């Protein structure tokens, strides 16, 4: 069933659905041959005009869907935990739609993201210290629940467990990709997982074409059975709990390739040498794709599809200098 807009935007106001449609016109780029194989990596990536249109899509989509379902009232405050980029997407969406947005993060949030959130009108609440075992993800969750208890009127988008998360990608992103991708050339897909929203939608898209999907997960993530450990990477992996979104899509995970921080940074540096500026989660995807290409064997050809969800500018030179003994 097609769900229509709630109401048409007045002539003097920006139509949020038009904004979301525009953000969802994601393009792809060829990231080069994968090692010594016959496979090439094709990456869906966000618009360079926004910090990350991937999370801008999710932030605005979550609020629009919640309003359509009657879950979010006009002017109701919104709250969410974020490592950074989703927070900016929600803050911008809240400003557009008239919702005060409260964001629970930690001191590691990139300075540029923090400032953009402030300029967009978002209210930041920082967890001061990590949980001793489960890290800042757990510390943020604890602070989030404390704030929800103090403010029961806040609407929690709950990206990790809400079915609205993958629905955003299914409704707005997938139709455009179906029109632009050449599925006959795609041998497999591999994606990073945080909440699992884009994996859920994109793996279902590929499954409909008879194409299998894999996961590239960071070392220290418990999502697929690993032991919890800290990481310099933000927005990928889960140190404290397994989100319901990825758990419900687990049957479409053909295999998992674990990538360390050092390997992810090496991937970021290799892509930078090719003129592609990305962040840590994209480095995880790239190195996972290299391993997947080798595992598919010498006769496999065509493309491996992935998603470069973050931009390198957010990390400064941290990832680019990682492993440089002269730094």
**CATH fold description of the largest domain:** Rossmann fold
Write out the strand line-up for the largest beta sheet, numbering strands in chain order.
1-2-10-7-8-9
- Mean of all residue-level pLDDT scores: 90
- Tally the beta strands: 10
Poorly predicted sequence stretches spanning 5 or more consecutive residues: 1-11
Q: Largest beta sheet, briefly?
A: 6 strands, mixed
Distance between the termini: 56 Å
Description:
By secondary structure, the protein is α/β, with parallel strands linked by helices. It has 2 domains: 16-49 and 163-321, Rossmann fold (3-Layer(aba) Sandwich); 55-156, Rossmann fold (3-Layer(aba) Sandwich), CATH 3.40.50. The protein is built from 11 helices and 10 strands. The chain has helices at residues 16-23, 53-68, 85-97, 111-119, 135-150, 164-180, 197-207, 244-247, 261-273, 280-296, 318-321; strands at 27-33, 38-45, 78-81, 101-105, 123-126, 155-156, 186-191, 213-218, 253-259, 301-308. The strands form 2 sheets. It has a 6-stranded mixed beta sheet. Helix 1 (16-23) runs antiparallel to helix 2, helix 6 packs across helix 7 and helix 9 (261-273) packs across helix 10 (280-296). The longest helix has 17 residues, at 164-180. It is globular.
């Amino acid at each position: 069933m097609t769900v229509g807009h709630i109401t048409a935007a007045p002539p003097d106001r920006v139509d949020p659905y038009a904004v979301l449609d525009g953000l969802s016109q994601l393009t792809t780029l060829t990231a080069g041959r994968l090692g010594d194989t016959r496979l090439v990596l094709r990456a869906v990536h966000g618009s360079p005009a926004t910090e990350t249109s991937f999370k801008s899509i999710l932030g605005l989509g979550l609020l629009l869907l919640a309003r359509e379902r009657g879950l979010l009232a006009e002017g109701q405050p919104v709250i969410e935990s974020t490592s950074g980029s989703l927070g900016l997407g929600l803050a911008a969406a809240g400003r557009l739609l008239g919702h005060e947005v409260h964001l629970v993060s930690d001191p590691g949030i990139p300075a540029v993201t923090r400032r953009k959130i402030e300029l967009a009108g978002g209210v930041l609440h920082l967890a001061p210290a990590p949980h001793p075992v489960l890290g800042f993800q757990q510390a943020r969750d604890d602070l989030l629940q404390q704030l929800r208890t103090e403010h029961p009127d806040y609407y929690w988008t709950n990206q990790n467990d809400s079915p609205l998360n993958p629905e955003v990608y299914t409704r707005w992103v997938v139709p455009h990709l179906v029109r632009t991708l050449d599925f006959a050339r795609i041998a497999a897909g591999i994606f990073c997982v945080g909440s699992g929203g884009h994996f859920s939608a994109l793996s279902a898209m590929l499954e409909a074409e008879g194409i299998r999907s894999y996961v590239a997960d960071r070392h220290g993530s418990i999502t697929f059975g690993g032991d919890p450990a800290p990481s310099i990477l933000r927005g990928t992996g889960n140190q404290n709990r397994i989100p319901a979104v990825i758990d419900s899509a687990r049957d479409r995970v053909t295999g998992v390739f674990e990538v360390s921080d050092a390997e992810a940074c090496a991937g970021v540096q290799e892509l930078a040498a090719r003129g592609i500026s990305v962040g840590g989660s994209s480095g995880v995807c790239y190195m996972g794709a290299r391993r997947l290409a080798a595992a598919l064997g010498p006769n496999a050809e065509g493309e491996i599809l992935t998603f470069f969800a973050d931009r390198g500018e957010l990390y400064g030179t941290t990832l680019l200098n990682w492993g440089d003994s002269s730094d």
